[in-house]
Design brief:
Elements lengths: L1 H14 L7 H13 L3 H7 L1 E4 L3 H12 L5 E3 L6 H12 L8 E4 L12 H5 L4 H18 L3 E2 L23 H16 L12 E5 L13 E2 L3 H17 L4 E4 L3 E2 L2 E2 L4 H11 L5 E3 L4 H8 L5 H11 L4 E2 L7 H6 L5 H17 L18 H18 L1 E5 L12 E5 L27 H9 L4 E5 L10 E3 L5 E3 L12 H10 L2 E7 L20 H12 L3 E7 L7 H6 L2 E4 L7 H9 L58 E9 L2 E8 L5 E11 L11 E10 L4 E7 L2 H4 L1 E2 L5 E2 L3 E8 L8 E5 L1
Parallel strand pairs: 1-2, 1-11, 2-3, 3-4, 5-7, 6-8, 7-10, 13-14, 13-17, 17-18, 18-19
Antiparallel strand pairs: 8-9, 12-19, 15-16, 20-21, 21-24, 22-23, 22-27, 25-26, 27-28
Helix pairs in contact: 1-5, 2-14, 4-5, 7-8, 7-15, 8-9, 10-12, 11-12, 15-20, 16-20, 17-18
Bound molecules: beta-D-glucopyranose.
């Protein structure tokens, strides 16, 4: 450790060259630095290595010492000693350019927050900002200066596992949340000891991966590109995001990272992005696998010239040295990319402070951990969405109530953490299971029995066809040794209230976790159906704890109350128990439509009205639209909307709590343009919301501005337009209720 500290002192003197604040000076110094670099050193700055094992560190050390690597991604294996060793080697390299260290802070680092899809249901962007700030602080302490978030892909297909990482189906809302996360990660100054650089991803269109398969073609129109996919990126870039990550998907037949039109013309030209672009993991070399580039050499040139500065994981950029030597590449392209990398390193303060914060031998700050946990709990409370309540909730806590808690998530501490946590460097378990939390909420009264009943993580049964090909064996049930129907029925019979805790296993959601069925994994649904059939009339509360919306109408039919909770992080169980027992009040609203059945997908609220609105539906189901639409969610009280009208340049409505309990309403503001000559606009588009807390009998006048920003859209050239003409405005509790008020915009 002494060695490292002595080195810091010497090296910092050398680094003062580019440590000066004030962009003119810094620019000059960066230009001088680049002018003195060899081609290998320049390419080194564009190389991002990945560290999994000690062996990787040993392999990289000699290359780092030569200044031929610019950054590392830890991929959940962050170790302080590795970081120190590598940074020391970089600072001993000829140019002494520090390394940058990155990882994914998607919903927290040490503290696990609700997955973004969950937290988006809070309709509280400030929570995203706070979550990102805590993640940034904890990440910095661990040695990171850069995170690969926020992810702001507008997603309509819940079969795609990565719906968990984004904020649902609305592009405007994704933009609001992405901007909040950028502010939270970077603050005013990304070099501050509690901030990191943000990386807005996956630019762009990745969420439209066909069929919900990951890493796939995404085929959509220019109209959708402009109005669905780019707007959240525009918002994040306006908020100051220092970096952008290109996506894995194709757009218009080309892997997006190889499209100069998208990566440069639109990103830098249209959206005005000035920062650094990193590819996704191994994506450069994958342009060969896609069948676009013939070889590594072509892949590297294509991706660099398209606009990707840093190559994550693959090493195709090494071939650029030859491309340069043989005159096929202009060195200024490389120089510009290297300058963006150096500006980034300057912005995150690496030249001034290359070491992790606090200094390696300092104590972890426990008080802040407790504050972070309190925030994680608050976030989880605000995220859960009550979608059904026949009056059974809230349950009385201080009574003799007998509760049976049934399901594989009852005592599970791992699943709640969500898809981007629970890895080695994160807390692998949440502090409180649902059983612990319910017991606490019952305050020593009543009786709680807990039965796991089955497992979440069971592979579907596979059979062999006559020709030997594997098929899903629909006749057989998955093999689950833990299936305990008798135990579950016995516990349920003894109880006054049965709480089912059902959901998805962790590795069934997130990246590379596509599904073609939207049901709780394993035999959970069978357990639910058999238990509910066996016990007759009981009060039933079901918690759906998943990474994506689950389409389970039978659960809604047979339950008196249902929470769509998603993976809620360290506070997930705490929140659900508090909500069930009325210690907290539900206030979340869905940001992704919940379908009745997977066969309806895509189901989303901001669809076109079509030329034949009453035709074209499936004949073999009466179900139209979503089971629970975007924006929907109940509370323990009721709200009435009145006087929806236009007043001057505003749309207004009066919201009154007509129930008997205090509660929070998410007042939603949608617009519709009646005739748009550029293209058909959705039947509704969210353009504002207010979350208001009202006591019984209390009312409030809520107002939304009517201006070109709220009413407009992007045309096919990426210009924001607002046409004069007739618009409908809706101020409503969700995306399908309320009636429109017409007005004319001149
Ligand atoms: C994911 C990115 C992530 C990267 C690094 C990729 O597979 O698509 O979202 O940031 O890995 O972990």
């Amino acid at each position: 450790m002494r060695d490292v500290k002595a080195l810091i002192a010497t090296v910092l003197v050398g680094l003062s060259l580019v440590a000066v604040a004030g962009s003119g000076e810094t620019e000059r110094e960066i230009a001088e630095l680049v002018a003195g670099m060899s081609v290998r050193e320049k390419l080194g700055q564009l190389k991002q290595g990945v560290l999994y094992t000690r062996k990787d560190v040993d392999c990289y050390l000699p290359i780092v010492r030569k200044g031929e690597v610019g950054s590392f991604i830890f991929n959940e294996t962050l170790k302080r000693e590795w970081r120190d060793e590598l940074q020391k080697a970089a600072l001993e390299s000829p140019r002494r350019i520090p390394l940058s260290f990155a990882d994914n802070i998607i919903h927290g680092w040490r503290t696990n927050f609700p997955i973004p899809l969950a937290l988006s249901c809070s309709f509280e962007p400030e929570l995203f900002e706070e979550m990102a700030h805590v993640g940034a602080r904890e990440g910095r302490e661990a040695g990171l200066d850069w995170t690969f978030g926020p992810m702001c892909d507008t997603a309509r297909d819940p079969r795609w596992g990565r719906v968990a990482e984004g904020c649902g189906e609305d592009p405007w809302l994704n933009g609001v949340y992405a901007a909040a996360q950028v502010r939270g990660f970077q603050g005013e100054d990304a070099s501050a000891p509690d901030r990191v650089a943000a990386c807005v991803k996956h630019y762009c269109g990745y969420s439209f991966s066909m069929g919900g398969h990951d890493y796939n073609d995404a085929d959509f129109s220019e109209w959708s590109l402009r109005n669905l996919h780019l707007p959240p990126f525009a918002a994040a870039i306006d908020a100051g995001a220092l970096t952008v990550m290109s996506g894995f998907n194709t757009v218009d037949g080309v892997p997006v990272l190889a499209s100069r039109r998208i990566m440069t013309d639109m990103l830098r030209g249209g959206l005005g992005f000035r920062g650094m672009v990193v590819t996704d993991y191994n994506a450069v070399i994958q342009t060969v696998t896609w069948g676009l580039a013939a070889d590594e050499r072509e892949a590297a040139s294509l991706c660099l010239c398209a606009g990707n500065d840093v190559e994550m994981k693959s090493t195709a950029y090494d071939t650029l040295e030859r491309e340069l030597a043989e005159g096929r590449l202009d060195e200024t392209v490389i120089d510009e990319a290297v300058k963006r990398v150096l500006r980034f390193k300057q912005a995150v303060g690496l030249f001034r402070r290359p070491w992790a914060i606090p200094e390696p031998d300092a104590e972890p700050r426990r008080r802040e951990d407790a504050e972070a946990l309190a925030l994680a709990r608050k976030c989880a409370v605000r995220s859960a969405v009550l979608v059904k309540n026949d009056g059974v909730l809230p349950l009385a806590a201080d009574s003799d109530i007998r509760v049976a808690l049934i399901g594989p998530l009852a005592e599970d501490r791992k699943t709640f953490v969500g898809c981007w946590a629970g890895m080695e460097s994160h807390g692998p378990e949440v502090p409180e299971s649902l059983a612990d939390a319910v017991r606490r909420a019952m305050g020593g009264k009543g009786r709680l029995s807990v039965v796991r009943g089955c497992s979440t993580n069971v592979k579907p049964p596979v059979a062999k066809r006559d020709d030997g090909l594997p098929v899903l064996d629909r006749e057989s049930v998955p093999d689950d040794a833990s299936f305990d129907l008798e135990g579950a029925i016995a516990a349920a019979r003894e109880a006054d209230v049965v709480i089912f805790a059902l959901g998805e296993a962790l590795d069934w959601t997130g990246e590379n976790a596509s599904r073609c069925q939207l049901t709780p994994t394993g035999r959970q649904l069978e357990l639910f159906e058999k238990v509910t059939s066996a016990i007759g009339k009981k009060r039933i509360v079901t918690l759906l704890i998943s990474g994506r919306p689950l389409a389970v109408p039978v659960v809604s039919r047979r339950s008196d109350a249902v929470f769509v909770a998603f993976h809620g992080g360290d506070g997930g169980a705490f929140a659900l128990a508090d909500l069930i027992f009325g210690k907290a009040s539900p206030s979340g609203r869905l940001t992704i439509s919940v379908p009745y059945d997977v066969s309806q997908i895509p189901v989303f609220y901001n669809a076109s009205v079509t030329g034949r609105p009453n035709q074209g539906h499936y004949l073999d189901t009466p179900e139209r639209g979503a089971m629970y639409p975007f924006g929907f969610g109940l509370t323990y009280t009721r709200f009435a909307y009145s006087s929806v009208s236009i007043r001057g340049q505003s749309a207004v409505a009066r919201i009154t709590n007509t129930g008997t309990r205090p509660g929070e309403e998410v007042v939603q503001f949608y617009i519709r343009q009646r005739a748009c000559s550029e293209g058909v606009r959705p039947k509704r588009e969210l353009r504002g919301f207010r979350k208001v807390r009202l006591d019984p009998g209390e009312s409030v006048l809520v107002e939304f501005p009517l201006d070109a920003k709220t009413l407009g859209y992007y045309d096919r050239s990426g210009n924001w337009r607002c046409d004069s003409g007739i618009y409908d405005i809706f101020i409503a509790p969700d995306s399908v209720s309320g009636t429109g008020v017409q007005f004319k915009w001149e």
